[in-house]
TrEMBL record:
It comes from Populus euphratica. It is an enzyme of class 2 (transferase). SUPFAM superfamilies: GST C-terminal domain-like (SSF47616), Thioredoxin-like (SSF52833). This is glutathione transferase. One of its GO terms (biological process) is glutathione metabolic process. One of its GO terms (cellular component) is cytoplasm. Pfam families: GST_N. Its EC number is 2.5.1.18.
Length: 108
């Protein structure tokens, strides 16, 4: 059993940020799926587990990853590609092994 449990949905950008950080730091964890569409996050036991209802993550630019990934699948991708420094930055953070592990969890 993992020493840490992450409750969330892999479709949630917030959960994706935390997953990227956990993989980046090589923290052993267990992902407990929470069906947000069914409102499980608003019911017990999830309410009692979420004491502060707030998680701020701003380390190593990982908080940008889910939104960038979504934009790369749209016509907006050309905005990243047309700017060499931005393109290099995007390639750098989306190429991280931790982010590849998060993407592997997403449905195809």
């Amino acid at each position: 059993m993992a020493p840490f449990k992450l409750h969330g949905s892999v479709l949630s950008t917030n959960t994706q940020r935390v997953l990227a950080t956990l993989y980046e730091k090589e923290v052993e964890f267990e992902l407990v799926n929470v069906n947000l569409g069914a409102g499980e996050h608003k019911q017990e036991p999830h309410i009692s587990l979420n004491v502060s209802a707030l998680l701020i993550l701003k380390e190593k630019n990982l908080h940008h990853l889910p939104n960038i990934q979504a934009l790369l699948g749209t016509p907006s991708k050309k905005l990243f590609d047309s700017r060499p420094r931005v393109s290099a930055w995007v390639a750098s953070i989306t190429g991280r092994p931790a982010w590849s592990k998060v993407l592997a969890l997403l449905p195809k």
